[in-house]
Amino acid sequence: MTKYIAKIGLEMHCEMSETKSKVFSSAKNEYSEIPNSNVRPLDMGFPGTLPVVNKEAVRLSLMASLILNCRQPEYMYFERKNYYYPDMPKNYQITQNPPEDCVGMDGYVDVERNDGSIFRVGIDNIHLEEDAASLDHFYSTSNIDYNRAGVPLLELVTQPDLHSAEEAVLFLEHMRSVYQYAGISEADSKKGQIRCDVNVSIMDASLDENDPNNWGIKVEVKNVNSFGGVRDAINYEIKRQTEAKENGTYDQEIEQETRRWDEDSQATIHMRSKVDAIDYKYFVEPNIPKIKLDKKWLDEIRESIPELAMDRKKKYINDFNLSNYDAGVLVKEKAISDYFEECVKVGIDSKIASNWVTVNIVGELNKEGITINDFYLTPEMLKQIIDGINSGMLSSKQAKEVFSKSLEEKKEPKNYISKDNAQISDEKELTDLIIKILDENPSQIELYKGGRDNLFDYFVGQVMKNTRGKANPVMTKDILHRELDKR
Amino acid sequence: MSYMDKSIEELHELLISGKVTSDELVKESLEKSHEVQEKCNAFVTILDDSKGGEVTDNLLSGIPYGLKDNYSTKDILSTGGSNTLKDYVPFFDATAVIKLNEAGAVKVNKTAMDEFGMGGTGTTGHTGIQKNPWDTTRSCAGSSSGSAAAVAAGVYPFATASDTGDSIRKPAAYCGIVGYKPTYGMISRYGLFPFASSLDTLGVLTRNVRDAAIVIDAMKGKDINDMTSWDSKDIHLLDSLDGKVKGKKICYVKEICDIENYPNATKELKEHLENFHKTLDIAKKLGMKVEEVSVDRTLLNASYSVYRVIHSAEATSNMSNLTGIIFGPRGEGDNYISMMKDHRTKGFSPLIKRRFVIGSYVLQKENQERYFKNAQRVRRLIVDTWKELYNKYDAVLCPVGIGPAKKFEDLDKPLDINTMTLDEHLQVGNFGGFPSITIPDGFVSNLPVGINITGNCYDDENVLNIAYALEGAMEYKNQIAREVKHD
């Protein structure tokens, strides 16, 4: 790619999962496995139904607009996008129509690369709209689930400022983090909450990138539903377009068109040409009066923006003295960062908490394939273990055992820590005891050496008797073998 | 003894004093419904199972009434006068219906109408044409043709209606009764089948102004389901009717009302305008100041086209939910697109289809600026002109139509360019959302004609009071259609 520069723009659709109801209907905004359970008459386009704007959806969309350094409109209003499709029973979508005023215009966002360097992505606009129903296509039929119809959807449109699939994915990860930290959306692509359209063109690297006349032909790839898909679709398009350049067939093969990403064949496939672009016949939605955006309200929203990942990361490095790497791991997912902060809040030293979360807990989550929300051990419980270490009741090895035991048996760590119940896992303590027991039983050793293997269990029994069952059984066996071999 | 020719207040007195029961009223109203159905074809559904209701302090309690068939009524067929909904039984009531239910009024029929309110002749509904009870060879105008015919024929004291251009106020004139369209948003549109959302207004047909005030007092109110509805709790229409109009300033537009505008005027038009000026003399006698004003003729002449463009655009979008898939008769075809096409091809009358074509055309990207956006701009200019009049005057008065009800055979004649503005200027009331009422003000060719009074937004009390005073000074209050005999 040294001969060419890729210009990539993204349209990122993100369902706002954090409102109670849908954006224009009173149906619940809630992910449900039961199809068509969150539906009101408006969602199915019954005659005489009217949209009512969800104020919380407007508030959260304005928050996103502010975070993205966008300009907010004087009036909030909506437009109708008219098209016939079974996923939209009204046969029009209530949306906003940039470059007409929408919730956010002309912003930017700074994204951090893994090496700590920053790149800036221009935001053309962000707008609020309603999602369509979800369709499942089978051989001869399709199923429609209206649960998703009317769910608030934020569509973010970037400038073509991205230059590689990696940058595109970093941008998407950044935005996912913003949505999660701001409490706008879970932004879970597994639940279909994030969907992307990708625009890719390539241009000669020798030309000035800032002059749009030098840009290549823009190809749009629609409905890419995972970050991996975005990466693959971009790489595929860059390769396809580069090959066309190299083969001298660029002007014939590459046209301004809409393609789609096909997961199965790992290729983009032609959908429609520019000339077939649909005329959506936009006009201002007459059922929703223009809403004047009060400056005071915008200020309130700005002040209520929660601490975002970047802010937390800085705090972890500067105030908690964590490494850049650890801080990065901690803030990657808001739920984990929240867990870590709770650990600090209940009194665990930030460095110790960071170690436990980034190593033991993240390891455990990965092993079990669960999220932190499903993790048994609360920060308070983790503190029981840390306190055990600090008071000298647990060695670090014992602490890890208590951690595992507690998770395994779903019992609070304190059950395994009290002075009496704590397992004896101290190597020296056990060795001393075992030598003493062996010294007291010379005849049994002789019989054991003569072939009575089952006498091994007798020695284990003696150790347990002497420790009232608290000796670490695995260690006991190991040490016994070793000491018996010595005799 | 006949009761259904009485006013709401008279009936309430009779009910309260026990001289008649609600059951008896409902029975008489149903009998009359069948007679008028026979003669005028005024109804889509007659609710023969209707029973009298409880009589309370509410003036409407126990009183029979009719609902235009574009009001969504739970468990009762609601067709909007269209084959596309010929079997549609809603599962929810329009907000206005709920309010009338709460007042205790008893619905006895659903009235026929032009298909989805379009047409204005009472000839395009799916159940056939509505005949004028004064002269069955003539139209009632429309679209509230059934409601107007029924109230004029004495089926009950009131029927609800809707008005997008003049659909309440013109049928009122042609049928010799009162038609009141309050300020836009005073009554919730939730559950009214939409025609053109920015113009649609619910209202009522009665035989006197007090009845109109009583009914709208019951129907109005802010509704959480309609964002364009507003709080009118400080408006008390009935209580405000005191007939004190001395010193009120009213005006009429020279370019509409002066006979000099119409060099080729028919005898009926001359009589109609003379009659209008006689009514103005009555207004003067009542102490009102009457002045002639002049409005830019180009602007007035644009009104009809502006109305056409805006309502066609909104209608084509509003009615795109009518696919026969989720509700309405399912069309035939191999796939949903051909099923939808079949449903819409068979379901809509040619008139509606024409408007859909116009609506789509004016919304197309390449045409939108020239037609739709310009129509909206001219709409604003017209509204501003009227608002300026309201700075000086309490109301603008004008004659309704170019004479009495038109003969069916004359309906197909193209509009006379010279009288078009006179025939089609009541839309101004919808452009601005102005309160507007038609009352009968005399006879031409033995048939009733009407006068319209339109005031500024939220000034409904004033408008109704002027109408009330005029009505009291004339002899057309409470008139029941007396069929004109033909030789």
Topology summary:
The complex is a heterodimer of chains A (487) and B (487).
Chain A: E1 4-15, H1 55-67, E2 75-76, E3 79-82, E4 92-95, E5 104-112, E6 118-130, E7 134-137, E8 142-145, E9 152-158, H2 165-181, E10 194-204, E11 219-224, H3 227-247, H4 250-253, E12 257-262, E13 267-273, E14 283-284, E15 291-292, H5 295-303, H6 309-318, H7 324-332, H8 334-345, H9 350-368, H10 379-390, H11 396-409, H12 427-440, H13 442-449, H14 455-467, H15 473-486
Parallel strand pairs in A: 11-12
Antiparallel strand pairs in A: 1-9, 1-10, 2-15, 3-4, 3-14, 5-6, 6-9, 7-8, 10-11, 12-13
Chain B: H1 8-16, H2 22-40, E1 43-46, E2 64-68, H3 95-103, E3 106-111, E4 131-132, E5 135-139, H4 145-152, E6 158-163, H5 169-175, E7 178-181, E8 201-206, H6 209-219, E9 249-253, H7 254-257, H8 267-285, E10 289-293, H9 297-318, H10 336-347, H11 350-363, H12 365-392, E11 395-399, H13 420-423, H14 427-431, E12 436-444, E13 447-454, H15 460-472
Parallel strand pairs in B: 2-3, 9-10, 9-11
Antiparallel strand pairs in B: 1-3, 4-5, 6-8, 7-8, 7-12, 11-13, 12-13
Helix pairs in contact in B: 9-11, 9-12
